[in-house]
Design brief:
Blueprint: E1 9-13, E2 24-28, E3 47-53, H1 55-58, H2 66-76, E4 80-87, H3 91-104, E5 107-111, H4 122-129, E6 134-136, H5 138-148, H6 159-166, E7 170-172, E8 176-178, E9 188-191, E10 195-198, H7 202-211, E11 226-232, H8 236-250, E12 256-262, E13 266-273, E14 276-280, E15 283-290, H9 292-303, E16 306-308, H10 310-317, E17 347-350, E18 353-356
Parallel strand pairs: 3-4, 3-5, 5-10
Antiparallel strand pairs: 1-2, 6-7, 8-9, 9-10, 11-13, 11-16, 12-13, 14-15, 17-18
């Protein structure tokens, strides 16, 4: 199991005016060095999948935000998200799904099931999936101890409670351990060069996902797709024939045309693609370029609509029965937004239900 082992640093954080507790140091940890490209030099992540683990997701107790966040992250970084699966806290299901997804896709993430309780079985199940026994990771234990040593309950824990807590540093023995942020002791654990294990708490998941960016081989910016949206107040049935014809024409250029009605308001038409070179059908030796912006202007004319921003799309959707959320759901969280408060990173209340670590 590989990781860096630098020492943490601390600075004193003053208590709030109403606090009676003494000042506690703000613990920070060095991040890991950038590892070699696990896919091979010059190769990039093209496809991805997400495996969300948790009974609380399937029984409706907790609303899953992480898959939506991951979908936005993949789109913004030019990665084609192929699959999102939600499974129970069940060893056999975790083993089967993780093996299958790693075999098919370049980048796979899991969310949830890495906390201190009996139903947190993600590390153990993934160890079995890839033929690795679990071992304590000493650097992670040290960071965990450092992050929690000032909490008032630390000295009162029984041996059984300490064993439960230390399960959060029990990893498959050949895993890569990547510390992605100075203010989080929890690492991203990577298996088979592809599968990255994340906690289930949405704020922590989001912060760690964005912080992982320098450590993974994402596509170059010039290969990332564009999305343009056009709004019309015409009914979907009126614009359907044109959109069908348009999709047929644009399919060879890998441009996707989507239609998303808003009840009693109108329709958003979405164009997703890249500005691509293409052959001129009248002159096979000549090349032209498909400009997505030009296609969007054509759509505006044909459906009597107008190009709108992502913010306007979110505003139009608010107050409807649509279950889609705003594009702000996966904003990058700044360091001060996620505090290194030990097991406070291991459990949280999200929308009335426990968000599993």
């Amino acid at each position: 199991m590989s990781s860096d082992t630098p020492s943490p640093s601390a600075s004193v954080v003053s208590p709030s005016p109403n606090s009676t507790s003494p000042p506690q140091p703000k613990i920070t940890f060095p991040v890991s060095p950038i590892p070699p490209n696990p896919l091979g030099e010059g190769r990039y992540i093209r496809t991805a999948a997400a495996l969300v683990i948790g009974d609380e997701i399937l029984n409706g107790k907790t609303h899953d935000k992480n898959s939506h966040c991951f979908a936005q992250y993949c789109f913004e970084n030019g990665v084609d998200l192929k699959r999102i699966e939600v499974i129970a806290d069940n060893e056999d299901e975790i083993i089967e799904a993780s093996r299958r997804l790693v075999d098919r896709y370049d980048f796979v993430i899991t969310s949830g099931g890495i906390g201190p309780t009996h139903d947190d079985i993600t590390y153990e199940s993934l160890g079995k999936a890839f033929g690795q026994k679990l071992v304590y990771h000493e650097e992670t234990l040290r960071r965990l101890n450092e992050a929690t040593k000032y909490r008032k309950w630390t000295g009162d824990q029984t041996a059984e409670q300490l064993t439960a807590r230390n399960r959060m540093a029990l990893f498959p023995e050949n895993a890569e351990v990547i510390y992605v942020a100075e203010d989080i002791w929890v690492p991203v654990v990577r298996l088979a060069g592809k599968l990255c294990i994340f906690p289930g708490i949405p704020s922590l998941f989001t912060k760690m996902l964005h912080s992982l960016t320098p450590f993974i081989p994402l596509p170059p910016k010039n290969e990332r797709p564009l999305r343009i949206q056009i709004f019309t107040d015409r009914p979907e049935s009126m614009i359907a024939p044109y959109l069908t014809s348009l999709q047929k024409r644009l399919k060879p250029h890998d441009i996707q045309v989507g239609s998303y009605p808003i009840l009693f308001k109108g329709v958003f038409v979405s164009l997703i693609g890249r500005d691509l070179q293409h052959k001129n059908k009248d002159d096979p030796n000549a090349e032209g370029r498909v400009w997505l912006a030009e296609v969007a202007q054509e759509v505006e004319r044909e459906i009597g609509g107008r190009i709108v921003s992502d913010e306007e799309v979110a505003a139009q959707k608010s107050g409807t029965i649509s279950l889609e959320t705003s594009n702000s759901a996966c904003k990058k969280i700044e360091p001060e937004s996620v505090k290194p408060s030990g097991e406070a990173q291991a459990s949280a209340s999200e929308e009335g239900g426990k968000a599993k670590f």
